[in-house]
Each structure stands twice: as structure tokens, then as C-alpha cells.
């Protein structure tokens, strides 16, 4: 009887959070319908724990503050985002043959969470007792290990999502996890802003990182409870599996178009730092400080997670196209206003322009991320989905470095020109995204 009540409560909560589709349920294999709600809630919980941990260890906000607080050379800050992003994507195509040997990919996710927990625990120890160059290098090494753990989870989570939940619900589950992390981010950001302020010490950040390490331990424990089917995946791999995976870009037209589209979507990811730089240079200070940026990110996640999750289930390709087009429009509007002779970031209109542009781009990036994650899960089944995820992320690791280098070089002539370049990429992303084949449930 207690078990029946738990199952009934889980079904009720899941049905309240996720719009169910009887038609989509019919596509689920016999015997798996009863596990959908349980798996959905477990995946949402584990993903929310991971996303919340991400907020506490962001390479674009928290870790730069930590490097500064430790007295490490500022040059190390420039390594944080490339190591965090590219380090988690570049190895994926080459690790895929190993991942594909496992019939239950959830254990790959659990292992990835464990690696991330250990890496953040090492950062915690460094923040508590370290200082200077040695501490900075230790943070960089721990971040590289952390990225390897994220690489494993990135390969496997989308595969588990596709094998345990039907089309029409996957985008909403991604969105719910994003929303939950937004609530945590706002709470965390307010605490940092009003309790720590601008003078956060390394010892204070050590407590923050220690809490994040615990979140990944909990995420691993929750994800281990996912009831993943064992049929139809794993057990074998080709000797040249890595290179066979990379050949997908040459041989699979639809997949190649998706990767091309995804590379144009970088406008929403790479433009916000330039707005922050322009904001500081113009004298706008309404959101300076670590806490303010975390709060802004959290608000965007709360609004975007729920909204864009349902949009992704209707049509993930349209969501990607909309996100790219809207991001380009926001960037061009901000550039136009900033270029006016009378513009000043020290005024209220100037501050609203820069801060508002940052917030809108962060919000739209939430939609772009939910859209592309849902699209790649919906466009294939079984081991082919695993290959799609790994190869697209490896390709994006390279593309991110190239586009980032180009935009940084252009920024030498002024941040405005870098933003114009990224806006043009976004326009191409909108066109290519609209031309992608439809793979979502479409309800």
C-alpha cells in the first residue's frame, strides 16, 4: 500500500508538471509506460541538482572571483571558459566507443557525476587552504578533470532521456530542470550579493564549492535509480568507432545540417560577455558583483525553462530558429543604441539598455539550449543518438574555439564590431534552423 501511494503521488506530480500525450505514450515499449513518471521525476531531480551545482561553479562568474580571491595571476582567468566548455565537448567522439559498450548508459552518467563531485571537492580544498599561483593552477587542473566528467554525462544523459521518456515530454523535462536551477541561482545570487558583497573571500567561496560537490553526489545517487531498459543498446563497438563516428559529418546530410545550424547559434552564448564588458567600460554598475550576475542568470532560467520546454516539444527546430533570430535582433538593437552620440552607461536609460540586453540574451540562450538538446534527442534512436550527441559536441568544441578566437580578434577593433559579427551568425542560424527537418512531436 505505501508503494502504491508513492507511485500515485509521483504520477500526480509528474502529470501536473508535464503535459502528457496519449499519442506519444503509444510509442513507448510494452512494460515501460509505468516507469515514465518515476523516471521523469528522477531525471528532473538529478538534472536540477547538476544545474544548481553548475551555478555555484560557473567558469564565467564564480571561478574568476575565486582566482582573484586566491591571489593567483589574472592571466589564468582567460583559461577558465575554454577549458570548461571545449574540455567537455572535444573528447566526446573518441569516448563514444567506450560508452557504447554499456547497455545501461545511466551508469556512465553516474560516473560522470562522481568525477565532477571529486573535482569540485578538490577546488573546495584549494579554496580553503591554498593561495597564489599554485592554488590557481590547482583550480585549472581540477576544472579540466571536472570537464572530463561533464563530457561523460553529456554523451549519456540525452541517450537515457530518449530511452526512458517519449517524444513530447523530453523538452519539458529539460525545461523543468532549468527552471529549478534558476530558483537556486537567484537564492544563491542574493546571498552572495547581500552577505558577501564585493569582497568575497576564498574561504567563503570554499563553503559554496563544498555545497556544490555535495549536489553532484546527490545527483549521482538519484540518477542511479532511473529504470533504464537494457535492450537495443550496448555490448559492441567497432575498432575504428571514433573515426566512424566522425564520418557522420560527411555522410549524414540531416545531421550535418544540424551541426551547421548549431554553430550559428553561438550568438546567444558568446554575445553576453561583450555586453558585460561594454557595461563596465560605459560606467554602468547596477549589476556589478558576482551576486548580481548569478541572479540575472537565475531569473532567465526560471522564465525560460518552463516556457521554452513546451515550445521545444512542439517544434525544437522552430525554437532554435526563433532564438537565433531574436538574439541577433537584441544584439543589433543594443549596438544601435550604444552607437548613438549621446549614449552613456552611467545614465538610467544606458544602464537599462546594457543590463536589459544581457538579460534578454541570457533568456534566449536558455531557449536555444533547450531547443538544440531536444532536437538531437528526437532526431534519432538507440546508439545512433549517442553518436549524434558525441560527434556534434566534439565538432562544437572545435567550432567554439574558432568562433571565439575570431570574435575576440574582431573585438580588438571594438566590442561593437564583435557583436555585429555574432549577430550575422545568428541570422544564418535562424535561416538554417528553419530549414531543418521536423523531428518533434508537434503537439
Helix content: over 70%
Most strands sheet = none
Roughly how many Å apart are the termini? 36 Å
* Poorly predicted tracts of residues: 284-289
For the secondary structure, the number of strands is: 0
Give an overview of the whole structure.
The protein is an all-alpha fold. 78% of the residues lie in helices and 0% in strands. It has helices at 2-17, 22-25, 36-56, 62-69, 77-89, 92-99, 106-129, 132-164, 170-196, 202-223, 241-246, 248-251, 253-264, 267-282, 290-338, 348-378, 382-411, 415-435. α3 (36-56) packs parallel to α9 (170-196) and α6 (92-99) crosses α8 (132-164). The longest helix is centred in the last third of the chain and has 49 residues, at 290-338. 54% of the residues are buried.
Summarize the structure.
The protein is an all-alpha fold and 443 residues long.
Features:
443 residues; globular; mainly alpha
Secondary-structure map with pairings?
Layout: H1 2-17, H2 22-25, H3 36-56, H4 62-69, H5 77-89, H6 92-99, H7 106-129, H8 132-164, H9 170-196, H10 202-223, H11 241-246, H12 248-251, H13 253-264, H14 267-282, H15 290-338, H16 348-378, H17 382-411, H18 415-435
Helix pairs in contact: 1-3, 3-9, 3-10, 5-8, 5-17, 6-8, 6-17, 7-8, 7-10, 8-16, 8-17, 9-15, 9-16, 13-17, 13-18, 14-16, 14-18, 15-16, 15-18, 17-18
Amino acid at each position: 500500500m505505501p508503494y502504491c501511494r508513492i507511485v500515485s503521488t509521483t504520477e500526480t506530480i509528474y502529470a501536473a508538471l508535464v503535459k502528457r500525450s496519449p499519442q506519444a505514450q503509444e510509442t513507448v515499449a510494452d512494460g515501460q509506460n509505468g516507469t515514465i513518471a518515476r523516471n521523469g521525476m528522477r531525471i528532473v531531480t538529478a538534472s536540477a541538482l547538476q544545474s544548481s551545482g553548475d551555478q555555484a561553479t560557473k567558469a564565467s562568474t564564480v571561478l574568476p572571483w575565486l582566482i582573484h580571491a586566491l591571489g593567483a595571476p589574472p592571466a589564468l582567468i582567460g583559461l577558465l571558459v575554454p577549458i570548461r566548455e571545449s574540455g567537455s565537448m572535444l573528447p566526446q567522439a573518441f569516448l563514444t566507443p567506450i560508452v557504447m559498450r554499456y547497455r545501461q548508459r545511466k551508469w556512465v552518467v553516474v560516473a560522470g557525476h562522481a568525477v565532477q563531485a571529486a573535482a569540485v571537492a578538490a577546488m573546495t580544498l584549494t579554496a580553503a587552504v591554498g593561495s597564489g599561483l599554485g592554488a590557481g593552477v590547482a583550480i585549472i587542473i581540477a576544472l579540466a578533470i571536472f570537464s572530463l566528467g561533464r563530457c561523460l554525462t553529456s554523451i549519456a544523459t540525452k541517450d537515457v532521456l530518449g530511452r526512458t521518456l517519449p517524444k513530447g515530454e523530453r523538452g519539458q523535462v529539460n525545461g523543468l530542470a532549468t527552471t529549478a536551477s534558476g530558483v537556486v541561482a537567484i537564492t544563491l545570487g542574493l546571498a552572495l550579493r547581500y552577505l558577501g558583497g564585493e569582497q568575497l573571500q576564498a574561504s567563503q567561496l570554499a563553503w559554496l564549492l563544498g555545497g556544490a560537490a555535495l549536489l553532484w553526489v546527490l545527483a549521482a545517487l538519484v540518477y542511479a535509480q532511473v529504470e533504464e531498459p537494457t535492450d537495443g543498446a550496448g555490448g559492441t563497438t567497432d575498432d575504428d568507432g571514433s573515426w566512424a563516428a566522425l564520418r557522420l559529418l560527411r555522410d549524414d546530410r540531416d545531421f550535418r545540417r544540424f551541426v551547421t545550424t548549431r554553430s550559428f547559434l553561438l550568438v546567444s552564448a558568446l554575445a553576453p560577455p561583450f555586453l558585460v564588458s561594454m557595461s563596465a567600460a560605459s560606467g554602468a554598475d547596477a549589476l556589478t558583483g558576482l551576486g548580481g550576475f548569478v541572479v540575472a542568470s537565475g531569473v532567465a532560467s526560471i522564465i525560460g525553462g518552463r516556457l521554452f520546454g513546451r515550445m521545444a516539444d512542439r517544434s525544437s527546430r522552430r525554437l532554435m530558429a526563433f532564438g537565433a533570430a531574436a538574439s541577433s535582433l537584441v544584439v543589433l538593437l543594443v549596438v544601435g543604441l550604444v552607437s548613438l552620440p549621446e549614449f552613456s552607461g552611467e545614465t538610467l536609460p544606458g544602464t537599462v539598455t546594457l543590463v536589459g540586453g544581457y538579460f534578454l540574451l541570457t533568456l534566449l540562450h536558455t531557449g536555444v539550449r533547450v531547443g538544440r538538446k531536444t532536437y538531437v534527442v528526437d532526431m534519432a534512436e538507440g546508439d545512433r543518438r549517442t553518436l549524434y550527441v558525441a560527434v556534434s559536441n566534439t565538432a562544437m568544441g572545435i567550432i567554439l574555439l574558432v568562433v571565439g578566437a575570431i570574435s575576440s580578434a574582431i573585438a580588438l577593433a571594438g566590442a561593437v564590431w564583435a557583436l555585429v559579427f555574432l549577430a550575422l551568425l545568428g541570422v544564418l542560424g535562424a535561416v538554417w534552423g528553419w530549414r531543418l527537418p521536423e523531428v518533434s512531436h508537434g503537439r
